[in-house]
Design brief:
The protein is of the alpha/beta class. The protein has two domains: about 5-85; about 105-265, 2-Layer Sandwich (Nucleotidyltransferase, domain 5), CATH 3.30.420. Helix content is about 45%, strand content about 15%. It has helices spanning about 5-20, 40-50, 55-65, 75-85, 90-100, 180-185, 205-210, 225, 230-255, 265-290, and strands spanning about 105-120, 140-145, 150-160, 165-175, 195, 215-220. Strands 1, 2, 3, 4, 5 and 6 form a six-stranded mixed sheet that branches. Helix 7 (about 205-210) links the parallel strand 5 (about 195) and strand 6 (about 215-220). Helix 1 crosses helix 2 (about 40-50) and helix 2 (about 40-50) crosses helix 10. The longest helix is centred in the C-terminal third of the chain and has 26 residues, at about 265-290. The relative contact order is 0.14.
Length: about 290
């Protein structure tokens, strides 16, 4: 990781050049141009996630205190929060631009992870956690990875198996048919040759639909199948299956999405988009510098 000041400069140049070239299209707003540019706010949000800072308010205060020479016209926290939420589409455009710089893998993987919005004991009834058109709302779901219930949504991602770059993502209902989610994510980009999935995606209709597109669905072996497999093969299967867990760990734990602190669906959407954009920036830089999966 670069020194913090160098990281700010690197990310700002990348974002500002993308805005200037219209690779990131930010709609014009009425009124005078703000003193602190959109590129500066996008940069601050991305660097916060790259550094794994938990608190948005705390990081804005840190920037104002320690990096004022880089951002001399920082807006008040409430204005910065409002403008960053308005810029959520810029994060997704940046992610797509960065991901397009590297060819997609022939082998990809899809999985979902819990995205809680409040503790289950603090859900007395209906609340305001709803998405666009009220079609998506926070609900109870089961987090199989931690063997517990949660209240919120799920984050679904499609990643390359080698580079672990996120190629598509979506916030979906907590209790959802994962095969339907996978079908939607697979509509983005070319069909992979192989698709690695968890057992929650098992289904003859799903496998047949993907086979018709030229994709073989690969599932973890069942218990009786594992008993007949050589140890070296089981080790390889576990190693590749762990790559999706590593990606989720970077996004949710290291970059702080688990502790997103959002109070509305739009805040959650913005912080998810910013976190995944930061993760894509990290993975593309690593892939470009190393030249092989990491």
């Amino acid at each position: 990781m670069l020194p913090t000041e160098d990281l700010f400069v690197y990310v700002y140049v990348l974002v500002d050049d993308s805005v200037s070239s219209r690779a990131i299209a930010i709609p014009a707003r009425p009124g005078p141009a703000p003193a602190c540019s959109d590129a500066e706010l996008v940069t601050i949000a991305l660097v916060r996630h790259l550094l794994g800072r938990r608190s948005e308010a705390g990081f804005l205060a840190e920037v104002a205190r320690d990096w004022a020479h880089l951002f001399p016209t920082m807006p008040h926290q409430s204005e910065a929060n409002r403008r960053i939420r308005w810029l959520w589409g810029a994060f997704e455009q940046l992610r797509a631009m960065l991901a397009s710089r590297l060819p997609e893998d022939d082998c990809q993987q899809i999985d979902t992870t819990a995205l809680p919005v409040k503790h289950t004991s603090r859900v007395p009834g209906a609340d305001g956690w709803t998405g666009p058109g009220n079609d998506l709302a926070a609900r109870f779901g089961r987090d199989a990875a931690h063997a517990e219930w949660f209240y919120g949504f799920r984050l679904a991602v499609k990643t390359d198996l080698g580079s672990r770059i996120v190629r598509a993502w979506s916030i979906v209902a907590a209790a959802v048919n994962e095969r339907e989610v996978a079908g939607d994510l697979l509509q983005t980009g070319p069909a992979p040759r192989d698709l690695l999935c968890d057992k929650g995606f098992a289904g003859k209709a799903f496998a047949a639909a993907q086979a018709a597109r030229g994709t073989a669905v690969l599932l973890p072996p069942a218990r009786d199948q594992r008993a007949a497999m050589p140890a070296i093969l089981l080790k390889v299967i576990a190693r590749w299956r762990n790559r999706i867990e590593a990606s989720f760990g970077e996004i949710t734990d290291q970059m702080g999405l688990t502790r997103h602190g959002a109070h509305t669906f739009w805040g959650l959407l913005t912080r998810t988009a910013a976190t995944i954009a930061a993760h894509t920036l990290l993975r593309t830089c690593l892939a470009s510098s190393v030249g092989q999966p990491t």
